[in-house]
Amino acid sequence: PAPTQWYCIFRDLKFDPRMAPRMARDVEPSHVLKVAEAEVPNQTSLDNKDSLKLQKFSEVTLARQVSVESHGNHAHHNHTLPHSIFTAAASAVINYLLMFGLCCAYGMILFSDDQNRRHRALGVKMFLLPAALFGVLLGARCGIPVAIGGPDLTPAVFLAGMVTTFAQEIAVRQNLEYPMRRLSSAGSGRFLKGLASDAAAEDFCVGDHFLSNTSACEAYHESLLATTIVAVTITTACLGLVFFVLGKFGLARYLSYMPTSVIEAFLACVGYKVFKYALKFCLMEARQFIPAFVIGVGLYFVKAAHIGNPAVVMPLCLIVPVGVFYIFMQITGDTIDSSRLEGLYFEELPHVEFTEIWTRSLGKADAIDFQAIATVLPQMAVMIGVCSLDCLLKLGATETKLPLKVKKDAELQLFGLGNFIVVLFGSSVGYMQLKFNVINYGILGNVTDRRAGVMYGLLCGIGFFVSNAHFNYLPRFFLGSLLFFAGAGFVVENLWGSRRYLSFGEWLQVLMIVSVFVVTEELLPAVVVGGFITGISFIVKYATIPATATMPTKGSYITTCEKRGELLTRKVQSIADRWLLVVTLKGYLFFGSSQKVTSLVREMIAEEVKSGRPKYQRLRYVIFDCELLDGMDASAAKAMVQLKGEAAAQNMRVFWSSVSPGLAAELTARQIINSPKDCFESFDAAVLAVEQRIVKFLRSMQEQWLQMHWFFGYHAKLERERRALEPFGGILTSDSSRAGCPWQYCKKLSVVGHKTVLWSVGDYTRKLFLVHSGAVAVFQKRPMSEEDWASPVAVFRQGFFLNVKFFTRGLDRYTAVALEDGEILYWDEESWFKMGREQPNMMGHIQRAAIEQHVLDLQNRADFRDAPPVDVAALERLEVSSITSDKRDFQELPRDLQRVHDKVDAALALENKGLLGEGQTEGKVAFFPALPSSMSRDLQTAFHTFSTPGPAGASQIEGKNLARALTYAGLLHVPVSQNCSRSFGEAEFMRIGHEAAMMALSSAESAMLLEILKRFADANATVGGSDLVPMFRDLLGGFVREDAVDRIAGGWTDLYSTDGRIDFEMFSTILSRYCKSYEHYYYLFSAVREVAGGSPACGLSTTFNAKTLMDWVKHSNRSSISADLAAEMIWAADWRSMGDRRGEEICLSDILAMLICQLGPSEGELPPAPKINPNKAPMNPAEVENLNTVLISLYPKDAPELKLMPNVGEQLQVPKRNMSVVSVLLENQPEMAAISKGDVDQSKVSFRHKLYQLLEQPSSSIAAKVVAVLQMGLIFLSLGALTLQVEMTGDYEDQTDSEKQLWMLVNLGFALLFSVEMALRFLVADAEQGQSRETFLNDSKTMCDVIAILALYLSALVPSQFRLLHLLVVLRLMRASKIAHMSFPALAGRGAAWLMVVAVVWCIYTKNGLSGEAY
Is the distance from CB of 1335 to CB of 1325 less than 8 angstroms? Predict the structure, then answer.
C-alpha cells in the first residue's frame, strides 16, 4: 500500500497512524498481500477490504516490533539509536546510583526506629541482593530486553511495619519497655523546640539502660534480627511461588477482580508512608526536607514529562545537589564528622559481611520468635496481595511506556524463579521496576540492548558482596530526595491520578482508606476498613443496580422468529400482553437484587387477585432470560424457588431462556426447575413455547365460536380443505389473477427437515419459493449444532414467500434450511418469465404479495412492536407501576380481514338490490350466463389432472376429488354435497363448474340490468369498458370498488365484441360472476347476523358484550352458555384493544376475524401438475342436464329476508409522532421557552452570567483572572497560616490565651471569606445554560470545599475537640487545582499533581506538629 493508504489502514485498525511511514518503509508489500489474501476471502484487492478483516495483517506488522516514531506518552527520540557500549554503561551507572540510594533508604526504612539502627547496614544488604540478582537475570533472560529489576518500595513499607511489631513483641518477652513515639517534653511545648529525632530511643538498650539490662538487650537484638530475616524470607518465598503459579497457569487475570479503588488506596498509603519516612530522614527540618522535596518530586515530574535526555538529566539531578552541598560545606569549614553531629548525615554504618544474613538467622535459630511472626500473618497476606497486584500493574504499564508486547505469564514465571534464588540469601522480594525500565530505554534509545541491565546488576552485586561504605558519604537530604522521588509516583498516580477513571464515590473510598491509615498509621486497620467499605459499596451498588437489562416487558412487545399472518399476529400479541412477562436478567443475582425481581412478580400476582381479574386474563407465564446472567448466590436461588411455588399455586409457570447446559444443571440442582421443559436454549424458543399455548387457547375459543352456528363450522371445513390443497389464499384473490392455471408455471419441491438446504450464504439463488406445508428456517450461517438450530433468524410456514431477492438479483446473506418435512412451490427464471408473458396479471399478483410480505416483516421488526424506552430510574425502582402496559387500539384492519370486509360489504350491497338472498330466484329464469374461455380451460385442466380412466375407457373424476378439482380450477368455497359418491365425466364436471362459477339471473333481474344498460349505452346498445364501473355503482347504490369489478371482468375479455364494446349479454355475464363470487361471504355474514338475532340493523360495526352474547344464544345452535365462558369468548375475540379495555365489547367484525383466523397447521399434499395443455379449446357443456343435486342449497326458502346495512365508519388515523425537537424541548423546559420568546429580563440574565464568569471562568476576562489569583492566594494563605501556627505556637494546650484568640480570629476570617465565595457561586450556579444548582452541589469539588470550610469553623470554634480537623483545609487545594486549570491551561496538566504532592507532605508535617509527635 502507498503511504497514504497506510494512514487509513492504521486509523481503521485503532493503531497510531504515525506508525504508517515506518511500516510502509519496512514491511514488504508482497508479504502483506500474501497474508491478506490468505486471511481475506474472495481474493479481492486489499484496498477494498473492511478494516476488521485486516486483523491478521495487523498482527504481522506488530510482530516486527518496530519502534513507534512519535507517541505521546513515551517518545524520546525521532529514531531508534544503535547499540553502544558507552550508552549502556552510562545507563547502568545512573540506574545503579538510583537503586543504591533507594536500597539504602529501604534498609533504613526496614529498621526505621532509631533503637534498631544497629541493624540498618544488614538491612541495606538485604535489598541490594535482589537488585543485583534481578539486574543480571532480567538483563539476560527477560522478554523485555531493557528491563531493570530489583526491590520495590511497597514490600519495604510492609516489612517495616512487621519489624515494628516484632520489636514490640520481642521487647515484651524480654521484659523491656519498647519506647513508642511520645510527646515532646521540651520546656515550652513548642514543636520546633521539642523536636529531637533520637530522644525517644536514647534510653533504650544504651547507657545505663543497657548496663542494667545487658542480657535482655542482647537477646532482644539477636531475636529481632533473626526474626526479621526469617519473616523477609517467608514473604519472598510466598511471593515467588505466587508469581510462578500465576504465570505457569495463566491466573494473572484473576487478580484484577480486586476492586481498583482498594488497590489504589493501598498504594496511596504506601506513598504517604514513604513521604513520612522522607520527612523523618530529614528530621522534620525545613532546611533538609524542602531541598529534598524539590529535588525528589522535581526529578519525578522531569521523568514523567520526558524532559531532556535522561542520560544527562538524571545524573545532573542526582549529582549536582550533592556537589553543591559539599561545596557549601567547604565554604563554611564544616567536615563530615561535624555535619554528622548536626544531623545532616546518618550515623555511620559499619561494614557487615553478607554472610551475616545466614549466621544471624540460621546460625541462631533459637532466637527466631515464631510467635511474633504469627502475629503479622494478616499483614503478610495483605502484602502478598498488594505486591502481586503492583507487579502486574508494572507489567501492564510497560506496554504503554515501551514500544513492545509483554508476555505477562512468561515474565511472572521468571520473577518467581528469581525470587526462589533470593530466598537462599534471606533477602527481600524483587521484580521488574517500571521507572527504571523507562529510564533505561530513554538513555539507550532502543528496546533491544540487554547490556545495561547486566552491568547494573553487577554494580549492585559489588555493593552486596564487597562493601557499601559509600553510603556514609550521602547526606540525609539525598536519601530523602530519593524517597520523595519514589513516593511521588504513588501519590500522583494512585491518589490523585485515580480520580480520572474512578467515580467520585470510588475515589471517596480511596480517601477514606487513606484517612484511616493516616490516623492509625497502621496498614491493617486500613485494610479492614477498605474491605468493609468495599463490601458495603458492593452491596449498595449492586442492590441499586438493576438486576434486569431492561424493564420487564409485556408479551405484546416481543417479536419472535416465527412468521405468522397479520391477523393471527395481532391476536397472539393481544393475549400475550396479559399472559406473558419477560424479565431479562443481567449480572450476578444475590439476595438484594433478586428480591426486587421476585417482589415484582409477587406484586403483579397480588394486584391481579385483589382486582378480581378473571383467571383467563391473569399472568400465566414469566420468562427469565439468562443471556446476560452471570450467576446467582444461594439466597437468590432460594428466592426463585419460593417464587416458583407461589406461581404454581396461581396456575402460572416460570420459564428460563438462553440457558446454557451448565446453568441448566445449576438450576436443576438448586430445584429452581423441575423439568427440562421449563428451560430453553434460546429466548425465541421460550417465547414460541408460550405463543404455542396462546394459539392453542385461541383454537379452543375458535371452537366455541364455531359451535354458535352450523355455517361457521362449514366455512372452517372449506378453508381447511383449501389450505390443504394450495397455498395461494391471500395471494391469488381474484378471477383475473387465477385465470390460466397457476400450477403450470410453478414446480413442486419436497423438503426434509434438518436436511434440505434451499440456499446458502453467498449463493446467487434464482428461485422464488412459496411454502405450502412444513417449515423453512433462515439462519445467519448453516446450522451445525443444536445451539445453531435453536437460533434461526426467521421461520416461514404456509403462504410465506422465501428469497425475495429473486426480484433484485442479489447475493444471499443467509442460509435457508428446511426445519420440518413438507412441500414447497417455486418459480425459476424460465417459468417466471413464461408466466409474465402468458399471464401478466397472475405474475403481478404474486410479485405484489411477496413484496407486501417482505415490507410487513420489516415493519414488524422496526415499528410495529416498538418496546417502551428504557427508564433508568424505573429500572432501579423496579415497581409494577413502572411496567409499560400496551394500551394501543388498532383501527387499521389486517390485510386478510380487510379482504373479508370488502367481500361482505359487496355482498350486502348485492343483497340490498335483491341480487343475493331469498329474492334472487323470484321470477322465471331468463338465462344461465356462459363461462369465459379462460375459466373453461382451467376447469378442463382440473378435470384431466384429477380424472382416472372409467369402465368404458372414458376419463371420469371421482366424487371425492370433485371439490379438490374445482379448487384447482380456482373456484373456491363451492358447496359440494358430502354424499356425492358417483363419478363424473368431463361434460358433467364442466356443467358443475359452470353452476359453481355463475349465478342464474331471473327475468326481473334481467329487466333491471337492461334499464341500467340503456342509461349508458349508445345507439348500438353497447357500452365502453370505462362505463362498466359507473354502471355497477348505479346498480348497487354507489358502493363498488373499482378494483373488485376489474378483477372479475378481467377474466371475460375474450367475450368483448370485436369493436371493444360491451353488450347486454356481456354485462349480465360479468354481473352473474360478480354475484357468485360474493355468495359465500354473504352466507357467512348472514350466519353472524342470525346469531345476533337476525335483526336487519346488524352490521359489521354493531357492538356487543358478554351479556348480549348470552342473550343471543337462543338464536344459535347452542342450548346455553355460562357468563364466564361468554366473557372469555369476547376477550379472546378482541384483537383491537390492549390493557384493561380489552374484552369489554367487540363488534360483529371481530366474530368474522375469529372465524377466518388460521390457527392450525396445513395438512395435505400439493396437487399433481397439469396433465394437458390448458390452452386447448374447451368442451361445450350446453346440452348437459342441470346437476343441482351435486351443489347443495345453503339456505332454506323460508330464511328471513336479509337487507343491506351501512358500512363500517371511517378508519381512525394514527397520531403523528414526528414532532419538532425544538418544540418538545420548549414544552418540557418553560424557562427555555420563555427565553426564546423574549419574556425573561435580559439585564438580570446578563448580570448573573457576568458574575458566574467572574467566579467560575477565569479565562473570560482579565478581572476574572485577577479574582482567580486572589482565590488561590487566599487558599495558600490559609494553609500558610496553619503552618505558622504549628511552627510558632505548637500544640493547642501549649498556646497562651492571646495566641488562641489570635488563631481563632484568623481561622474564622478565612472561613467567612470562603463561605461568602461559596454562597456567591451557589447563587449563580444556574446562570450558565445547561447548569443547575443541584449539579453544583453534587459536584465532587464542591463537596470538598464544603468539608474544608466546615473543618475551619469547627477547628476555630471548638479547637480543643476538633484540632486535627484543621488538616481538612487541604481539601481547598481541589478548588485551587480547578482555578489553576482554567486560569493557566498550559500548566494545569502537572499543576494539580504538584498540589496533591504538596498537600500530602504538608499534612504529614502539620499533623505531627499538631499532635506534638517527635522522632
Answer: yes
